[in-house]
Amino acid sequence: MHMVAFYKRDKVEWIVNRPGVEESMLTAYFDANRHHEEARRILYRDFPEHFTWQSDGKFWQKRKNSIFQVGRVISAHLAKGEHYFLHVLLNNVASATSYKHLRTVDGVLLPSFCEATERRGLIKEDNTLNECLTEATLFQMPSSMRRLFATILVFCEPHDVMGLWKKHYDAMSEDYNRNHPSLDLVQQMVLIDIRNMLQSMGKDIRSFPLPDIDHSYDDASHIPREIFE
């Protein structure tokens, strides 16, 4: 899926049948891997360092000058499902020539990006989850970081939960830190938020190795979960 620009007066049939409408930076990246051997060693996120995007013809052209250019794959939240797993594959697999190529592992075409990611051992590695959280800190609000952390606990089963907690606690608590001088209170507020998010997903925070919640800080302890949400 990619963005398509059109005028308000355009008919849907014109937009869908417009020549090249199905092309995007990603599909052009696949084409480049098919036609340029040197492109096959480069991850999609690093492609702008070596190729320039030609928007008029929708293709990647090899750079003539060695000017450093930063590239980045648009981030994806775990809740995005297949979009997220495609993001993980593009950040770790080079030389892809199609979506099917990304879903092929050891000669077997898998039915989803999720299964391809699992078969490659990418989603079970805590370093991938750490990268996901680190990238999210660039543009996500602390409340979104807490929800992402809770989502990772539920769906990715990280091995080192406390390690992820310690690395990303500052980003998850930034909003509370601005308004509350007590470090203990801030930690409790973050934990209570995460606990409530986990409850909405049918999980108990006590099943994860995280700091204990002091219920004397919990203003929502007597409010029904549905009302709190």
Structure description:
With 229 residues, the protein is mainly alpha-helical. It has two domains: 96 residues, no CATH class; 90 residues, no CATH class. The protein is 46% helix and 5% strand. The protein is built from ten helices and four strands. A two-stranded antiparallel ribbon has the order 1-2. Strand 3 and strand 4 form a beta hairpin. The longest helix has 19 residues. The two termini are 31 Å apart. The mean pLDDT is 82.
Summarize the structure.
By secondary structure, the chain is mainly alpha-helical. It has ten helices and four strands, in the order H-H-E-E-H-H-E-E-H-H-H-H-H-H.
Low-confidence stretches: none
Task: Please give the count of helices.
Answer: 10
Sheet with the most strands? Answer: 2 strands, antiparallel
Alpha-beta content class: mainly alpha
Order of strands, main sheet, comes to 1-2
Number of separate domains: 2
Task: Compute the CA-based radius of gyration.
Answer: 22 Å
What key phrases describe this protein's structure?
229 residues, mainly alpha, two-stranded antiparallel sheet, elongated
Please outline the helices and strands.
Blueprint: H1 12-17, H2 25-35, E1 51-54, E2 59-62, H3 82-92, H4 99-102, E3 104-105, E4 108-109, H5 113-119, H6 126-136, H7 142-156, H8 161-179, H9 183-200, H10 225-228
Antiparallel strand pairs: 1-2, 3-4
